[in-house]
């Protein structure tokens, strides 16, 4: 393999693919990048056995097609520090040589057939074409996915397609985020659990490129293609929690409506004083007046908000961070919070995001 490439193209592709590379691994080859030169392009791939990211970029010239597996961090840092605008990389046998004006760097290489590729061309059970609204859907639910690797099913996002409606749902057991959007009617009903880690990479790519998205979902993995970037991930095995039963169906006892930005600002101020592992804020509804309170060893605050409240008086406590994340998940000017009781879940809806629903469990007041 031998090619010439601009530093800008090379570094951009490296920085994209390297996001799938683990910083440490018992399998050394997974800390490397697979480089492949073919048809005037350079493909760079990173993989940690569960997630794979591939980025293609134009080469100035491909002198000899081929592939090489090169340590990721070292390659990235060296290319970043080269001041020349173009460079060449040649690989043959156990070494790769990177040359630039005035110098060259020799890097040890792995054998290409040792690299753990995920089969992005595997048979897909469903293929979808989605727009930038899928990026908004991802932003709206990813915050609620769990981080406990001992409960892997909670670290994923459920993707369901039924009768032309695409539903994303994420929960960590304390909160739930759901987003519904229209999708092309599917030949088959889809219900897969995709790692939130992979979907965060998809959301990041969509934010950077703004291009259309092709999604292929198979029995064991999913592939997302955006322009010249491909994200492939294994699916999470297991049964996703039946979240629909957790959403209150009856009329709420109290409803608060008003400015989303004003409520968020007040909760942010309260969060400063709500110290501890579980920063607690209290929302009180008394005679139609809404107040936010917080108290800790650092001090206390109480703020009356210009929000509309209907229904019963209520005093309810929340983890400030959880409630704020539910409110910040989408953009909008007006918010509605429906309370089902002081120990029941609160439902968050935002005016400009009709497909979004956030559910937050309250804390018990002592």
TrEMBL record:
MF GO annotations: 3'-5' exonuclease activity; DNA binding; DNA-directed DNA polymerase activity
SMART domains cross-referenced by the UniProt entry: POL3Bc
Domain DNA polymerase III beta sliding clamp C-terminal: 254-363
Pfam families assigned to the protein according to its UniProt record, in alphabetical order: DNA_pol3_beta, DNA_pol3_beta_2, DNA_pol3_beta_3
Residue ranges constituting the DNA polymerase III beta sliding clamp central domain according to the UniProt record: 133-242
Family: Belongs to the beta sliding clamp family.
PANTHER family, A to Z: BETA SLIDING CLAMP, DNA POLYMERASE III SUBUNIT BETA
Protein name as it appears in the record: Beta sliding clamp
């Amino acid at each position: 393999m031998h090619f010439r490439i601009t530093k800008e193209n090379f570094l951009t592709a490296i920085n994209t693919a390297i996001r799938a590379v683990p910083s440490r691994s018992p399998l050394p080859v997974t800390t490397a990048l697979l480089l492949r030169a073919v048809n005037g392009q350079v493909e760079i791939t990173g993989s940690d056995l569960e997630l794979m990211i591939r980025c293609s970029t134009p080469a100035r010239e491909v002198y000899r097609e081929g592939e090489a597996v090169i340590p990721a961090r070292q390659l990235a840092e060296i290319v970043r520090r080269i001041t020349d605008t173009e460079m060449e990389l040649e690989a043959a046998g156990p070494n790769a040589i990177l040359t630039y004006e005035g110098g060259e760097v020799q890097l040890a290489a792995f054998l290409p057939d040792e690299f753990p590729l995920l089969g992005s061309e595997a048979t897909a059970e469903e293929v979808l074409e989605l727009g930038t609204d899928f990026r908004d859907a991802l932003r709206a639910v990813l915050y609620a996915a769990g981080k406990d690797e001992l409960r892997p099913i909670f670290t994923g996002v459920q993707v369901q397609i039924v009768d032309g409606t695409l539903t994303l749902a994420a929960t960590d057991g304390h909160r739930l985020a759901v987003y519904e959007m229209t999708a092309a009617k599917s030949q088959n009903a889809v219900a897969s659990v995709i790692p939130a880690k992979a979907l965060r990479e998809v959301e990041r790519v969509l934010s950077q490129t703004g291009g259309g998205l092709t999604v292929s979902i198979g029995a064991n993995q999913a592939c997302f293609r955006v322009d010249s970037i491909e994200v492939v991930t294994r699916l999470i095995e297991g049964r996703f929690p039946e979240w629909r039963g957790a959403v209150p169906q009856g009329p709420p006892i109290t409803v608060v409506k008003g400015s989303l930005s004003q409520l968020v600002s007040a909760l942010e101020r309260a969060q400063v004083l709500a110290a501890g592992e579980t920063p607690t804020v209290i929302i009180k509804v008394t005679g139609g007046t809404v107040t936010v309170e917080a108290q800790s060893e650092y001090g206390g605050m109480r703020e009356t908000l210009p929000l509309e409240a209907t229904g019963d008086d209520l005093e309810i406590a929340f983890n400030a961070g959880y409630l704020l994340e539910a409110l910040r998940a989408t953009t909008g000017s007006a918010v509605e919070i429906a309370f089902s009781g002081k120990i029941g879940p609160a439902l968050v809806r935002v005016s400009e995001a009709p497909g979004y629903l956030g559910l937050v469990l309250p804390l018990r007041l002592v």
